[in-house]
Amino acid sequence: MEQMLEQLISAAGESNVRTMEPMAPHVTFRAGGKADYFVSPEDEKALAAVVRICREHGMPFYLLGNGSNLLVGDRGYRGVVIHMGDAWSFCDFRGQEVRAGAGILLSRLAKEACRRELSGLEAAGGIPGTLGGALVMNAGAYGFEMKDVVRRARLMTEEGKILELSADELELGYRRSCIPERKLIVLEAELELKTGSREEICAAMEDFSARRREKQPLEYPSAGSTFKRPEGYFAGKLIQDAGLRGYRVGGAQVSEKHCGFVINRGGATAGDIMKLCRDVQRTVEERFGVSLELEVRTLGEFEEPEEGRRP
Predict the structure, then answer these.
(1) What ranges make up the beta strands (E) of the chain?
(2) Pairing mode, strands 91-94 and 97-101
(3) Which of 136, 186, 253, 272 could form an SS bridge with 268, CB 3.0 to 4.6 Å?
(4) What's CA 213's distance to the chain center, in Å?
């Protein structure tokens, strides 16, 4: 693969290409193995070239933002991780509209909006992901979803073609969009906010923050809510009622503070986390006949650990 490496360096720059990159520091679970290639393209031309090179070599690739909804297997990823980092972390406010890059953190975007007395992103301030990732899964919290503020998005196809899709065309639903189905790459998005009182906006953000600190295990690495909400139920309540509060596999644990969160208590492998999630899914299915679907995305090759244990 020496030829491919040379091509990636030519496309993105030597300082933006790494090999055998540990992925644990790049995901909020703080677990997982190494990616064969880790590339940080700085503009659309470089991004298109990197994707083209991957396709020409038949090499899988994955778009990464803040890694807040991702679990990478302990055996690593035999492909290219394309990191939408600092070069994609811009925002440009014009009245009530904001154009922002896929790599900007929602927390930063919410703070910038508050500073300009713009309302609409208060609940998004505690979502640990980037704008790009939030669009892909229509992220939300406390009744807010990205579809509430998105007007349109600028995207790239795997062939390098640029598209602009409206909010309706993005097909934003509960934790989904058409973006992964159509294999599109988020470049930037345009949001429409509302004018408001800075004091009220800041107070709302602090209220949401206080609720998170009280109810969520923010002191431990995790990927937020681990399972999607099944229709008619709450995942955390099902897990709790199944007797799985505090259930552990190695260093992974069902949070005692909020059973909807799987946390890394320290030293958890990706295999620990995956095994625990499968145990939870199986137990809830057996007890209540409800199928829990992972909200967390998985990438790479996993190893199976030993059996879990109850607290």
Answers:
(1) 17-22, 34-39, 61-64, 70-72, 77-83, 91-94, 97-101, 118-119, 140-141, 144-145, 150-156, 162-166, 185-192, 194-195, 222-225, 248-249, 252-254, 261-264, 297-299
(2) antiparallel
(3) 272
(4) 20
> What confidence tens digit (pLDDT) does each residue in 271-289 have?
999 999 999 999 999 999 9
- Per-residue pLDDT tens over the stretch 158-215: 999 999 999 999 999 998 999 999 999 999 999 999 999 999 999 999 999 999 999 9
The residues, ordered by sequence, that sit 6+ positions from 122 with a Cβ below 8 Å of its Cβ are: 110, 114, 144, 201, 204, 205, 208
Mean per-residue pLDDT for 63-76? Answer: 96
Residues 66, 78: Cα–Cα separation, whole Å: 20
Task: Determine contact, residues 201/116, Cβ cutoff 8 Å.
Answer: no
pLDDT value for 311: 47
Degrees, nearest 5: CA angle 140-28-127: 20
**Mean pLDDT score of the chain:** 95
- The single-letter DSSP state of residue 242 is T
CA atoms within 13 A on the CB side of 276: 31
Rounded Cα–Cα distance for residues 208 and 125 (Å): 8
DSSP 227: B
Token pair for 245: 């509060």
- Token pair, residue 304, equals 């199976």
Give me the active site residues, please: 175, 225, 295
Biggest CA pair distance of the chain: 56
pLDDT at 309 over 70: no
The H-or-E segment that residue 44 falls in is helix 44-56
First to last CA, the chain: 47
